[in-house]
Amino acid sequence: MEILIDNQNNLIKLDEKFEEQIQNAIKTSLEHLGYGLNYEISISIVNEEEIRKLNKEYRNNDSVTDVLSFPLFEREDIPEEGMLGDIVICVERVKEQAKDFNHSEERELIYLTVHSLLHLLGYDHIEEDDKLEMRTKEKEIMKKLGIFKNEKL
Q1: Dihedral angle at the C-alpha atoms of 16, 22, 23, 24, nearest 10 degrees?
Q2: Of 120, 124, 110, which Cα lies nearest the Cα of 40?
Q3: Domain parsing of the chain, residue ranges
Q4: How far apart are CA 72 and CA 83, in angstroms?
Q5: Residue 121 · residue 77 · CB < 8 Å
Q6: Architecture field, domain 2-145
Q7: CA distance to 32, 35, 72, 73, 111, per residue, from 8 (Å)
Q8: What is the pLDDT at residue 152?
Q9: Which of 33, 61, 85, 144 could join 120 via S-S bond, C-beta 3.0 to 4.6 A?
Q10: What's a single GO BP term from this record (predicted)?
């Protein structure tokens, strides 16, 4: 498993422990969902300006969002190894949402990582049934990680 983390901001410092938490979240997610660990994933931590630009360019949506996922495969076509895709997380949204939900920035970043990885694996939350399935998987993975809502890491 190779996780490439590109921290393009100075609002959240990603030390070795924090990067290990991100890697553990991805490893736990892949294992929980029955995938192997022979994958590569790119994670970029960006500011509002950058995520807005990407959101407009790739989704035709001129707004800031908390996270964007760029999967390389449809759910039924995911290979047993190789690059799965890119995750882009907005640092200001991490900070805002952590405050809004009364938990740590670390917890929010881990949650968004899990959420985005599910998107890379073909999960979505457009239809209500799909949303329920995705939220259930998120909760199962966060529970396995021992990270709960309103928790300060």
Answers
A1: 110
A2: 120
A3: 2-145
A4: 8
A5: no
A6: 3-Layer(aba) Sandwich (3.40)
A7: 30, 29, 23, 26, 19
A8: 55
A9: 85
A10: rRNA processing
- Cα separation values, 113 from 19, 28, 71, 140, Å: 11, 12, 13, 14
pLDDT digits 0-9 by tens, 81-140: 999 999 999 999 999 999 999 988 899 999 999 999 999 999 998 889 999 999 999 999
pLDDT tens column, 42-76: 999 999 999 999 999 999 999 999 999 999 999 99
Q: How many residues in the chain?
A: 153
Instruction: Please name the amino acid found at residue 14.
Output: L
Map tokens 């800031």 to a residue.
64
- Bin 23: left if φ > 0, else alpha if -120 < ψ < 50, else beta: alpha
Query: How remote is the C-alpha of 80 from its chain's centroid?
Result: 20
pLDDT for the residue 150: 57
**Does 125 belong to an annotated binding site?**
yes
